[in-house]
Hints:
Elements: H1 10-19, H2 26-32, H3 39-52, E1 56-59, E2 62-65, E3 72-80, E4 86-90, H4 95-98, E5 104-107, E6 124-131, E7 140-147, E8 154-161, E9 167-171, E10 181-183, E11 195-204, E12 209-220, H5 228-234, H6 243-251, E13 261-263, E14 269-272, E15 281-287, E16 297-304, H7 315-323, E17 327-328, E18 333-334, H8 339-345, E19 353-363, E20 369-380, E21 383-386, H9 387-394, H10 406-427, E22 438-441, E23 447-451, H11 457-479, E24 486-488, H12 494-506, H13 519-529, H14 535-545, E25 550-552, H15 576-588, H16 598-602, H17 604-634, E26 641-650, E27 653-658, E28 664-668, E29 677-680, E30 685-688, E31 693-696, E32 700-709, E33 714-719, E34 724-725, H18 729-733, E35 742-743, E36 746-747, H19 755-759
Parallel strand pairs: 5-7, 13-20, 14-21
Antiparallel strand pairs: 1-2, 3-4, 3-6, 4-5, 6-7, 8-9, 8-11, 9-10, 11-12, 15-16, 16-19, 17-18, 19-20, 22-23, 24-25, 26-27, 26-32, 27-28, 29-30, 30-31, 31-34, 32-33, 35-36
Helix pairs in contact: 5-17, 6-7, 10-11, 11-15, 12-14, 13-14
Amino acid sequence: xxxxxxxxxxxxxxxxxxxxxxxxxxxxxxxxxxxxxxxxxxxxxxxxxxxxxxxxxxxxxxxxxxxxxxxxxxxxxxxxxxxxxxxxxxxxxxxxxxxxxxxxxxxxxxxxxxxxxxxxxxxxxxxxxxxxxxxxxxxxxxxxxxxxxxxxxxxxxxxxxxxxxxxxxxxxxxxxxxxxxxxxxxxxxxxxxxxxxxxxxxxxxxxxxxxxxxxxxxxxxxxxxxxxxxxxxxxxxxxxxxxxxxxxxxxxxxxxxxxxxxxxxxxxxxxxxxxxxxxxxxxxxxxxxxxxxxxxxxxxxxxxxxxxxxxxxxxxxxxxxxxxxxxxxxxxxxxxxxxxxxxxxxxxxxxxxxxxxxxxxxxxxxxxxxxxxxxxxxxxxxxxxxxxxxxxxxxxxxxxxxxxxxxxxxxxxxxxxxxxxxxxxxxxxxxxxxxxxxxxxxxxxxxxxxxxxxxxxxxxxxxxxxxxxxxxxxxxxxxxxxxxxxxxxxxxxxxxxxxxxxxxxxxxxxxxxxxxxxxxxxxxxxxxxxxxxxxxxxxxxxxxxxxxxxxxxxxxxxxxxxxxxxxxxxxxxxxxxxxxxxxxxxxxxxxxxxxxxxxxxxxxxxxxxxxxxxxxxxxxxxxxxxxxxxxxxxxxxxxxxxxxxxxxxxxxxxxxxxxxxxxxxxxxxxxxxxxxxxxxxxxxxxxxxxxxxxxxxxxxxxxxxxxxxxxxxxxxxxxxxxxxxxxxxxxxxxxxxxxxxxxxxxxxxxxxxxxxxxxx
Length: 760
């Protein structure tokens, strides 16, 4: 470095700027070349000359070589490459002056920082960029620094083509219903009518009109079979596997007996939904022949050994971590692992040899676990059974498959389940009645009907044995002092408990808590209201008081199951958390050299945050797809009347769920009638000022379908039934019912017409 009054040459400045990884300005150049005093003014003139000559570009106080991006840029994710990796373009780029923006291949960290969001198509991000060595797909490699606000510089929507060129975009976001974004001629990017597209937004012209430019075609929505594409792209769910991951899957070969126990003669069976494609768990039970455990049982749970095929740190493993879990839509499954692994090598097909990680659990006559042991085995499933098929056999209607299995396999399983049920009742987990609806589709992908599958003992049996296996996995790893991912569920917050107490008090129930908070406390409340008029309300409020389950590398228990330690072990085909736990067991029990690595242990906090986010993303995508399918199904029923129940109350209106389909729709508060309706947060209700008419969470409601927006999955209803009558707030408070505005934190709403005029 030089000092004094001597300035660096133009070439030396450019070389320094190119080598520096961070932002470079006059201050950094002065420090590097020890430029002080009056020489700093000369440096400023030199940099200005370089900029005027087009050699340097300036951004704020930073400079960089002309035609190149600065080291750190704000960019928008606009598409994917053929390997499924994100591609971005700089946000601040004058295309008219500088030509097409350069593409940046977005590199996602293997170990994201705690709390770092997972980016998706259309997201705006901060990237640290450098020129790419292979510039065929992208000019730059960008390392993710931060995901910015999800308000997005781009939107997803369906393209509507105009006859003379150009068109308009109908956004898929419910918040933008009724809004169309014009697309000028020349900005269609080859989009055809009905295509799902990603659109860049920009204000143009003197009046700042927002116009759209099609950035990427994502698929046609001409058929309902493609409706899940909307949620897949909206949530950035990865559909295509990178070639390297597929190559690893195809190269995998069946596991051998080496290093494993031979369990091929043990008649384990799989019990799954009839349409299941992958089978990752099998069960078996026998009476315990130990005279010291009279009436006891030995339960065996065998889980597909995915760790044997998915090498830690390999292409398959990296992709599985990015996906986090499989995503299940009514019309398709987006798997965590390629079919070669999930539906073939790791699927416990009947009469086919498969590797497994198994746990043997000894229960006493009351179903309490006495001990357990893990084994790495080679097994062969004796049969593939559906829930209803296994249940029918127990109920006296065995078929050709279940008949030979009834006495040696099924009856011992049910006997062990009955014992485990006694232990479950003693443990008293949270007992919420949450029926799950299932959409049945026609061949063309449209909705045939919505059903609530019957809840059978066969379902409960598998559920209980999986819980036992998960507990055993967590206990073994804790005993061996091996780090793991726990499945944790925190107890309700103090704020939510206070809110629950207010609701209970409003219906005359006194909430008294003695000792530590346990699920049994909520069970007593639920039992108290069972069969009564407040059952639906209290069930809903108790559900909303609960925290959300997640993954964590530190244990704080599972409140809902009332378990001190719990880990997901039983579904490694579709959940990355379970694969981590499998590897931890392999390491702890010295089952092989494919166990949990030190670098993975260090990254467990980040992995937990990443897969918890992936789980929430998958749940949202699944829920939104069901909403869209049902909205399509009901679009021809405008004006029809339905029965439902109020499932949400806000200042702006009521949410109602229909009994028959489970569809959710909204009733704006302004359409409720001629009264002013205030939001009573404590009571979860809208209350009429003058009449005292009350619409409360959990109330039955008769509604008319007014509008259906299939693309957004939104329904709008009109309320036909009367609310319950309470003492009007205006009389209780002595206030004039004719006043409007906000008072005491509650919001008023006035309907445009009387209800009887709407009903005529």
